[in-house]
Amino acid sequence: MHYKGIKLNTNNMKKILYLCLIGLNAFILLQCKTEKKEISVKEPEENKVSSIFEEGEIEAYEESLWSIVPKATKIEVIAEGHDWTEGPLWLPEQEMLLYSDIPRNAIYSWKEGEEAKLYLQPSGFIGEKFEGSEPGANGLLLNKEGELVLCQHGDRQIAVMQSSVLEPTANYKSLASTFEGKKFNSPNDGVIKSNGDIYFTDPPYGLPQRMDDPNKEIPFQGVYRVDSDGEIKLLTQEFTRPNGIAFSPDEKKLYIANSDPELAIWKVFDVLEDGSISNGKLFYDVTKLVPKEKGLPDGLKVDNMGNIFATGPGGVFIFSPEGNVLGKIKTGQATSNCAFKADKSSLYITADSYVLRVRLSL
Questions:
Q1: pLDDT (tens digit, 9 = 90+) per residue, 25-46?
Q2: What whole-number distance in Å separates Cα of residue 329 and Cα of residue 271?
Q3: Distance CA 339, CA 85 (A)
């Protein structure tokens, strides 16, 4: 075969084809490397999470949920391996989360980029031997002075830690331990009004035998208020298991959870000028969900727009101020409580042995 005066025999043709194939392979390899380099984008460090909670999901019942929780949000695990987590509290100055592990009689702390670690022990029972399963602190609060206030199961009181939150010690001063001379059941959760008054619930969960405990002194499960002078007022005794408690943004409404499987509800009350409550109404009833999903109405928080984030069967319900369910953060766990970061950009959730985070819209 001839081409432009060049004689090509079989051997020459084989050499030319061989060289062409080598060149073609080199070209293809170069293109692949170039394309791979072009599409490989390093994820920003701040978007990385240590763990995604694969069991959970965020479910919208109304489209307006996505203005509160971004569609792309995932449920993150920030701590796990606990016995029973509760009482999350964000410390804004320290940029730190505190939370209780009630059976361990301990409080743990967590900061971004760090592992959770023991913060304070004992947290709710100072004695030598506790007969029940829940001796530790439950709800945690921060007062106007920046002091840690604890709902202590084992010691059956509301107390304030007598040291800085930066240098915690198990040294407590009782703020409220009795009503009309009778010991509280086991203060569970609370909220501090802007004037410093502490509103708290008192179910029997910290008593070793709960309702049948021989040391139970008060025959009902009350909701109370203790003012800055230490005066204690009974607000209501209508609940069978009062639990989570929170104010509306203007403090004119008070929401209270009832964690009774036979009456799993939230109620809302008007807050009067003297600090008392009245006109209690049913806010939402989830009793029918109790046999189907883990958990009961428990801790709750309210955002700046008045939306209520309430733990209950299956996770965290997100209600509008009118009582419509906008959506649900489904954890699949018995979910006990939640707390906002100071700027409301994240919601921290205590769910059985886990502590979770969900990023919110600002």
A1: 544 444 444 333 332 222 333 4
A2: 29
A3: 13
293 pLDDT more than 50: yes
**Model confidence pLDDT, tens digit, residues 295-319:** 999 999 999 999 999 999 999 999 9
CB < 8 Å & 24+ apart, contacts of 148-152: 148/89, 148/98, 149/175, 149/190, 149/192, 149/198, 150/123, 150/124, 151/87, 151/124, 151/187, 151/188, 151/189, 151/190, 151/200, 152/123, 152/124, 152/125, 152/186, 152/187
pTM of the model: 0.86
Cα gap 253→275, rounded to integer Å: 11
- Write out pLDDT tens, residues 218-236: 999 999 999 989 999 999 9
**pLDDT tens across 252-288, in order?**
999 999 999 999 999 999 999 999 999 999 999 999 9
Under a CB-based contact definition with an 8 Å cutoff, are residues 75 and 358 in contact? yes
Q: Which two tokens stand for residue 22?
A: 């080598």
Are 281 and 214 in contact by the 8 Å Cβ rule? The answer is no
Q: What is the C-alpha to C-alpha distance for residues 352 and 179, in angstroms, rounded to an integer?
A: 31
Local structure of 38: helix, strand or coil = helix
Q: How many CB atoms lie within 10 A of CB 197?
A: 16
* Residue 192: CB atoms within 10 Å: 16
Q: Look at the block and give the residue holding tokens 């490989």.
A: 40
CA dihedral 201, 205, 207, 208 (to 10 degrees): 180
